[in-house]
Specification:
By secondary structure, the protein is an alpha/beta fold. The protein has helices at 3-25, 27-48, 50-55, 72-77, 79-82, 89-102, 131-145, 167-170, 188-198, 207-219, 238-248, 356-364, 395-408, 413-418, and strands at 112-116, 126-130, 156-162, 177-183, 202-205, 228-231, 252-258, 261-266, 272-274, 279-285, 292-299, 310-311, 314-318, 331-338, 343-345, 352-354, 370-377, 382-389, 420-425, 439-441. It has a domain at 342-447: GMP Synthetase, Chain A, domain 3 (2-Layer Sandwich), CATH 3.30.300. The strands form 4 sheets. Strands 3, 4, 5, 6, 7, 8, 9, 10, 11, 12, 13 and 14 form a 12-stranded mixed β-sheet that branches. Strands 19-18-17-20 form a 4-stranded mixed β-sheet, covered by helices on one side. Strand 15 and strand 16 form a beta hairpin. This is Adenylate-forming enzyme.
Amino acid sequence: MTIKKIKPFISTYLDVSYQRYLSIKHPERFRQFQKKRLNRHLKRIVSKSPYYRSLINEQEEISLSDFPIMNKAVMMKEFDQLNTKGISLLQAKKVALQAEENRDFAPKIGTVSVGLSSGTTGNQGVFLVSDEETVQWSAAMMNKALDRKKFHGQAIVIAFFMRANNNLYETINQGNIQLHFFDLLHPVEENLKQLKQLKPNVIVAQPSMLRMIANFFDKESLDFSLKEVFSIAEVLEEVDKEFIEQRLSCRLKEIYQATEGFLGISCHHGTLHLNEEIVYIEKEYLADDSTRFVPIITDLYRTTQPLIRYRHTDILVERVTPCPCGSSFIALEKIEGREDDCFIFGEGKEAQVIFPDFIRYAITRSSEEIRQFKCIQQTRQIIEVTLELSPQALESEIIQTVKAKLKALVKDVDEQKALTITINVASLDYEQDQKMRRVISNVKGGER
């Protein structure tokens, strides 16, 4: 690491440590500290971003409520004026698409790295990160994800599985930390063979890929010790968590990382906390439910492509009891899924919305012989389910139970009668370069 990068790295590392200390020992002081930091950040953004300068007067008092709520569509539409480096969307997309095509993710626009989101929410996003921001990200990630006491001075060897690499991730490579990128576009067998040769002590991958790894080492001997295994990118289902932990003999933690930033990570007790020393979170609670909310995110570090009041589409379920780790950072029971993957039955004001977690629960609690599943609402009257069962499973009995439990979720009797549920039993194979989604709703747009 160059001298130019050492200063922001150390500054961020110490800043994250200090705020974590405050969150445990002095929660009220942490909230005051965060509020002051937020106000300073907002003033800085208004002075740098043409988009926000056109919306907000540079008055002495700038409040978060002065800023409009943002989403991906608006962010892409206003991309040229929103970012603070004068980079056009056309220019950024050209660099990002070329990197994807050549699988060479090193090229930048000046000192700015460019990346593409996976596009699973319907429209692919473009993100910009400066050299300083990549260093800050790596400092926060190393501070929060790597407990050096576990490694006893050994080299930390990370196997990192991702659809696309980025200069952001490469900043982790320093000192005795070695990050090895595994391209999900490469054949799975090739990646697994290289993984066995590498013998990492940390694996970071999607639950779908972790299942493949767990299956592989269920047959092959796992002749190296895993210190940490992290799930990323996809919703971590309990059925997958149990399967992976059992076969890899290691507690599975979550890293909540998205295009919108480093949003959360599991503590040593296994509780997923939002990174409130990095992002300021507003909660938009859903319906009358007091624990489910959609996060509205303000990143307190990013200035190249400001993220102010960005409304995410993930449904988060808040933990109601304090975490034993003592942190006052928002603790989650789980990331439930996307808001647009709620199932919808009925019309207008009488429409019934069923959250993805209820769908999962109905299926997984139907039988212990269900290994994996996928459930898709194609229309308001049609649901398609695929089940992967153990060899000894009583197929017809399980199918009837799943149908009954799914129909029981629908309150209206006429809607229940009109509902057609098709269930197939098959092997659910990992789809290369695709995020695994177990609960999917295609009832969108005009259908709603």
